[in-house]
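Box S2. Input/output pair 1.
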Amino acid sequence: MASTRTETDSLGPREVPADAYYGIQTLRAVENFPVSGLIGSPHLRRAYALVKLSCARANVGLGALDARRGKAIEQAAEELAAGRFADQFVVDVFQAGAGTSYHMNVNEVLANRALEILGEPRGHYESVSPNDHVNLGQSTNDTFPTSAQVATLLALRELVPAVRILADSFRAKGREFAANPKAGRTHLKDAMPVSLGAEFSAYATALEHLLELLPPVEHGLGEVPLGGSAVGSGINTISGFRSKSVQELAGLSGLPITVARDPFEAMQSRWPLGAASAWLRSLAQELVRIANDLRLLSSGPATGFDEIRLPEIQPGSSIMPGKVNPSAAECLDQVAFHVIGADLATSLAIQAGQLEINVMMPLAAYEVLFSAQILTNYLPVFARTCVDGIQSNAPAMERYLLESTALATILTPRFGYPKVAELIHESARTGTPVRTLLVERGLLRPDEVESLLGKAALLALTKPVP
């Protein structure tokens, strides 16, 4: 049995591995762009399969494609959508502009599988052509951005539950730590009391707020340019193809997908991917802030805050016995840093489009989908290995709180700002607690100091004023 088959394109013949479902244009792309070894997201493969399935059904239904070829292409696309042929997608993420190489990888795999279904040899493109049949009425111009947006919607649908898991973990800790008063800090200096529970509940609220900002992003992604063919005009499409193919895609994907209100704008601008990337960046920024708070609050134990204890998930040093690091929070930082960097790459790709099409789509699609994937993968792990097991160190929090000169702020309505400031400076200079100075100076009785600055009074102060 021959190890190769001969295929010919407009540049001439080439030998393609006989058992490959991809074809000559994919082979050229692999040879031309051996850059990173990275390949497109599984979400992009699935989305492209759904796009091709939708187009095949639309073309058959409208009479542009005969049922025999159409049904074979549909079956091939259904198999691809179900996860088959992943090893046949070999084009590097960094490739020729617009995604033509990846698009032809899809077309060739589907064409050769359709040929196989029809009992014909792979590469016999007179019967089922990657261009004339699988790609009928389509272009990279409209199918790649459509697939990228559908893939991003699919990825976000997986990410949302992961964010909710983490938010729920913080919310549970907020309830658990509600009765733990502690010194608040602003500018990393002592400030008015809060509760550890309020800090953790605020982390949950931040994540919940971000989820509330997502629907408009999803709405933008759902408006797709499919059916615009080249540049948006719908050239070489049969009448009704645009609406029919998008209707099919919405039904197959279960996503709120609609026809682009302006097909020319939908070709030129990739702002929906930019909006998704910006949302991911905002999520990542909050995650960095939260992770670094946890690292700071758990620092020490002897030389740091040591107000919380993170779960010990692995030894922290190759040379210092017994040292345990905030490893999960460090990993979350690195994941989030990558997402923030990916947003910059996406931003550059989106602004780099010229006139009727953005040729930097492959990079933008990869960065958005990879960012969503690593967040989806790690946020539930972080909730389980870190947040769920956090313990409070109540003695340390109480000590810091009762020694904090910031508590003197409570006395301002009674003694005035200048007098209280004088007490704070004297306390800092002499090392005598403000509580002691109040009694020594005859400003308050011990029981009055306790009623104003005791633990019960301070816990009451951690509740927000109505």
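Box S3. Input/output pair 2.
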Amino acid sequence: MQFYVYSNTNPASKGLYPYLLDVQNSLLADLKTRLVIPLTAQANCRSGVISTLCPVFNINGEPFVALT
């Protein structure tokens, strides 16, 4: 699998960004940090989605947008 999606556990941001997309390459696996992209419900994107920049993921039957 190329990417992993994790539930956001930060109480300050998990309401708007319930999931985080881990995009860090395995070449950097020794780092103690991760590079993630927040995912928000597609309904939060009022002006539409540029799908080539901000792909939409289906998680538990709901569309979520990667805020790249």
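Caption for Box S3: The mean pLDDT is 89. The beta strands are 4-7, 19-22, 36-41, 56-59, 62-66.
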